[in-house]
Fold these 4 entries.
Entry 1:
Amino acid sequence: MKNVKFYLAFVAGILVYAMVLHTSSCTREDAPIGTIEPPDYQYGTETVKNSEGWNFDKTHSSALWETNYLGVSALLTGRFNTFSAKAEFDEDNPENSSLSGFVVLSTVNTGEPGRDAGCLLGTFGVTTISDTARLTSKKFELDGKGGYIVTAELDFHGVKKDVTMQLNYTPMTHFDVDSGISGAPYAVAGLTGQFEFNAKSDFLIVSPNIADRVVIKLNAQFKKPG
């Protein structure tokens, strides 16, 4: 009998210990846990500027777009074959930065020649208004997460409106002569951006083929010899 009492007392002790341990080691979801500080993102001091000998590398860049087909169906995606960009980018001083570029709308490419030469050209307003869309930055700001928020003017289909672009920088990489890379020595660096706009409600596009919301993805690589 004494053994049974001892065993029961031992089990009870273990349960009490487990409950105390659980209570002391776990925090309820609604319990205050103090202030959480955001990560301290560091920005470098690199510059990528046309005025300093950096050239736009179109071969390794792209201007892409996407929207819902018929406004509700599967994603319709494409690119523009003719485009360019200019940059005066200061990594740690965004107020000194600027970015501009253009696409030629009639070079739209979705991989379907019949579609590209047909309804899409009418959709983009190429035949009636302008064959060029332009983007010009107005303000660069740090986003506090290692990237940038860029306010830019989009000039498209005869309308000019501001858009907000998320921009990220790919730091410089240098290739030496002995790296085996053709054309070395040179350095490369990149800017990647994404923004969206309302094609119908803001830029007066009249078409049942696309949704109002259009997303643009820009990949701009720059190259500097030496």
Entry 2:
Amino acid sequence: MISIPVPERNDDLNIDKLISQYGNSLLRMSYLYLKDIHLAEDAVQDTFIRVYKSYPQFKGDAELKTWIMRIAINVCKNYRRSSWWKRVDVLESLNSIPAEAGLIPDLRDDTLLLEIMRLSPKYKEVILLFYYQDMTTREISQALNIPESTVSIRLKRAREKLKIKLKGWYYDDEN
């Protein structure tokens, strides 16, 4: 019989509370990152398993939300590196994002979201974390393990790219 080691129980960790507190935002972020609801659900589950296993090593250097988001981002990145992901038609996934999924804010159309998803990963992740997860630049900096100034620059550049792509659609021609 194979025995699976179980991490030491820590009374300070209430996994049910973490799931209810962060589950929806993790699912939303994972969905926007992976563009597939089933993969996003798996990623959230894997995230909470890693949180449970790694909690004894959590030093408290960052806020708990930031630490959990960092784990979720790494899980999503690992999913995207898998051989399965390389066979998925990403553009087809972009066009099939369900508006009724309730995971993304109500938009009159999905043009903005599609353009965000077409950004390079370094710009996309800061936009998603800043606007969709309401994280500060400091929290994003900690979650992505990059300097805060880099986060600000990436946000600025991502906004500029979106402004160019959406000119005449969301932005007036004068701006």
Entry 3:
Amino acid sequence: MMASVTRALDLSARLDTAPTAEAVGRLLLAAIAPYGARSIFSASFKVPPYKKVEDFAADRHLFAQQSPRGWVEAYYQRGLHTRNPVVFASARRTTAFRWSDPGFDDLKNWPGFDLARDLGIQDGLTIPFHTPGNRVDVVSLGFERFDLSRQETLTIALASAVAHERMVELSPFIPAPGKPTLTPRERDCLAFVAEGLSDADIGGKLGISQTTAHAHVESAKRKLGAKTRAQAVARLYSLGLF
């Protein structure tokens, strides 16, 4: 156990220097890349009273996301964001689990796994964190190979827990009743959308990838209940969230 703790602390030693939750996610992913990690998704979700995956996913607060090229676009085009059982399963687990673990029928035959494999992600590890306010946070990691030993899995789970604490510290939020809660980065991305910038241009302005910029815009659209980007910008103005 102590060896795993020491390795986890070594992996996460640089996290205190990260200025944003997203930067924490990038540093964590870089640290565990030698283990085969190629993607990271970290977010917070409210658990009750949701009964469906789409409702559970709609109320998310994104901390960090870095995915293979083409993942986000295909993920939303195929409607996978409304029915991701990996995220939903986190509400029913208290320890780290592999995406391919048995025991959850809704994890079987999910088309998102086919997409992940097409993009070089063979399996994943999700670490759930049950937090105050009936929320569950996740750090979900995709691996191009998954041949981790028990100690390596524990090391990555511990490092992810340290990273999660830092992401929460850097990305506080208080859900406001009757009004959607957008992160500063989501508002920044929509502000640039209002200026007519593309995802690539937004990424360049904010120092993030085009994929990440797209994810922030799509997350803001869902929270605002908007079908288009223009509608999202209009609702943001009308709610006084700019």
Entry 4:
Amino acid sequence: MIASFLEYLVLEKKYSKHTVVAYKKDLTSFYEFCKDVYDIGSLTEVNYGQVRSWIVVLVEKGLTNNSINRKISSLKSFYKFLQKTSQITSNPLVKHKSLKVSKKVQVPFTYKEISNVIERLETHKDFKSLRDRLIVELFYSTGMRRAELVNLKLTSINFQSKTIKVLGKRNKERLIPLIPSVISTVQEYLPLKKEINSATPTLFITIKGKKIYETLVYRVINNYFSNVSSKVKKSPHILRHSFATHLLNQGANLNSVKELLGHASLASTQVYTHNSLEKIKQVYNQAHPRSHKK
């Protein structure tokens, strides 16, 4: 039952391996709970009261509301699948409401902080420095996700059209323009990459010629930005956040930013408007004909 659902996620929904593993972990954990506590042999027998009991256990274990909501989201998708395939007649989670979570405003890097990192990296021309500089520049100039950057191929870049092809969530492709400075860095980086004589087709590799991995990318961003920023969170996602916020601050259209980020809906993109609100207020106060009247 769980196996057929996971197969559906891979083949029909085109979910990534990482996401499918998370679903499997959540469903297996819930099944073990139901079997141990309620002696239930099949997840088709579950009622909402038993789901609530599992939530209580998760709270007692110290899981955050965000983590619990993600696990319940896995259950919701699973039971929708069971209903869709006529394995159950009613969904036990149909009336469930997500636990309340406090919205944390993520503070983007300033343009100065990003410039400082790039300028420091520009003083070194070895393979590692050029690779790391290109990572920073691509994150900030394209807004791509960490997993998307890791999986970029040499063939992803089209020098003629000055674009990069990104494979996003659910295998959706999007083309993002490349600014001249990034193209220049790519052209500096590629000869040094070639010297390493790596067989991997990916754009980014380690010094040993292996495909770069997500933990290393996080470390690159965290290490360099720790030298120039006192912000609590210094990650690839904050660079993506900075990309979107800075575009909106400069008057970019929300729909355009949505397309560049690879969001499925505007609701996901609108989270970045919170950081540009102060800029919007400044523009409003400067531009509105009655803003200076008392």
